[in-house]
């Protein structure tokens, strides 16, 4: 009988619990023993393992975050840290590991795979910057929170004829901001992938005011060269040029805590079942993600240290639709 461990690592994402649950239950269905590792790679290095029976993963499918907890564990980037992890994996007689997480976590998984650990990754990050998956677990829920904020802010912005800078998460990737801006009908979007100086935002808002808009909504990615605070500092000096009075709203970690959407629960379940299948076939050293609507595996060596590029067609959309 196999002993498979599962952990969640890096930034938490809504749907991680659904993924843990599905790994446990699809594994148990194959008569495997499933164990959870608490606090990601930190728990792997300290040997923090807990049994995961079918009942232990009950009542969590709807909960955001991760009940196994997550951590950032810089020590895991060192050879010594990974040797400690290997020691505990061997002591627990683990013959398969599932890593649920984003870019950094899958880079760590690739390093473990290079040491001979049969590891399979599951694409999970709200930032959607993971190479090998068109969409990752947590993105849909985080997007909908951003969208709801935009919709709410539009109501108050229109009533007072104001402009808002709405800062969304995404680390150094503009995906969340761009998609929320398109779906939310924002007047402008500022993302790391496109050079934009604060004065271009002033001009966009000025132009929107001249075209007769009752509000100006600008979605700003937290990782943009000029974040919402930097743009606001610049705009304050040009308030009369714009026509709108300016306010700033930063969503921050609120964006992480949404109840996982149907799409995220389903994606988590499909990817987890795919990961268990990869382990069963012995096709390890891979990341399981969604490509062209299908569950697909990509070698971790290709995924590690690589960032997914943003689709330029989406950027063009945002520009045209803001008219
Ligand atoms: P995410 O997985 O959400 O991108 P991080 O970038 O913080 O989150 O990575 C999570 C953890 O993965 C880190 O704390 C570290 O333990 C591990 N990790 C990140 N980068 C590497 C690396 N280059 N080599 C080994 N482990 C890594």
What is shown here, in short?
43% of the residues lie in helices and 18% in strands. The chain is of the alpha/beta class and 323 residues long. It has 2 domains: 3-138 and 260-305, Rossmann fold, CATH 3.40.50.450; 140-256, Phosphofructokinase domain (Rossmann fold, 3-Layer(aba) Sandwich).
Textual characterization of the structure:
- The chain has 323 residues and is α/β, with parallel strands linked by helices.
- 43% of the residues lie in helices and 18% in strands.
- Strand 4, helix 4 (103-114) and strand 5 (119-123) form a beta-alpha-beta unit.
- It is elongated and about 70 Å long.
- The N and C termini lie far apart (61 Å).
- The model has no long low-confidence stretch (mean pLDDT 95).
- The site of adenosine-5'-diphosphate has 18 residues, from helix 4.
Give descriptors for this structure.
alpha/beta, 4-stranded parallel sheet, binds adenosine-5'-diphosphate, 7-stranded mixed sheet, 323 residues, Rossmann fold, elongated, 2 domains, 12 helices
CATH architecture of the largest domain: 3-Layer(aba) Sandwich
Q: What is the residue-averaged pLDDT?
A: 95
Low-confidence parts lasting 5 or more residues at pLDDT below 50?
none
Q: What is the 3D form?
A: elongated
Number of domains: 2
Order of helices and strands: EHEHEHEHEHEHEHEHHEHEEHH
Q: What proportion of the residues form beta strands (DSSP E)?
A: 15-25%
Placed side by side, the strands forming the largest sheet appear as 3-2-1-4-5-10-11
Main beta sheet, described? 7 strands, mixed
End-to-end separation: 61 Å
Q: Please give the CATH class of the largest domain.
A: Alpha Beta
- Number of DSSP strands? 11
Oligomer: single chain
Number of helices: 12
The kinds of small molecule bound in this structure are: adenosine-5'-diphosphate
If you consult CATH, what is the topology of the largest domain?
A: Rossmann fold
């Amino acid at each position: 009988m196999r002993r498979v461990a599962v952990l969640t690592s890096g930034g938490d994402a809504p749907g991680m619990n659904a993924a843990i649950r599905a790994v446990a239950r699809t594994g148990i269905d194959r008569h495997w023993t499933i164990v959870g590792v608490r606090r990601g790679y930190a728990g792997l290095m300290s040997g923090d393992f807990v049994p995961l029976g079918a009942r232990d993963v009950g009542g969590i499918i709807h909960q955001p975050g991760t009940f196994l907890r997550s951590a950032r564990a810089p020590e895991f980037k060192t050879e010594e840290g990974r040797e400690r992890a290997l020691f505990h994996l061997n002591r627990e007689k683990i013959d398969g590991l599932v890593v649920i997480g984003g870019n950094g976590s899958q880079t760590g998984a690739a390093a473990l795979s290079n040491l001979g650990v049969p590891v399979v990754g599951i694409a999970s990050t709200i930032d959607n910057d993971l190479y090998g998956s068109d969409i990752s677990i947590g993105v849909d829920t985080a997007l909908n929170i951003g969208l709801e904020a935009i919709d709410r802010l539009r109501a108050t912005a229109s009533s007072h004829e104001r402009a808002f800078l709405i800062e969304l998460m995404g680390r150094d990737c503009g995906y969340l901001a761009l998609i929320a801006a398109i779906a939310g009908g924002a007047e402008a979007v500022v993302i790391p992938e496109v050079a934009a100086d604060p004065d271009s935002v002033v001009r966009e808002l000025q132009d929107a005011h001249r075209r007769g808009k009752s509000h100006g909504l600008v979605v700003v990615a937290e990782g943009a060269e000029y974040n919402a605070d930097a743009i606001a500092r610049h705009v304050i000096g040009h308030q009369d040029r714009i026509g709108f009075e300016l306010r700033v709203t930063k969503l921050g970690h609120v964006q992480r805590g949404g109840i996982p959407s149907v799409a995220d629960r389903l994606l988590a379940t499909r990817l987890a079942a795919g990961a268990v299948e990869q382990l069963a076939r012995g096709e390890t050293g891979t990341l399981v993600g969604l490509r062209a609507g299908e569950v697909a595996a990509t070698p971790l060596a290709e995924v590690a240290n690589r960032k997914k590029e943003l689709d330029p067609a989406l950027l063009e959309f945002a520009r045209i639709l803001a008219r």
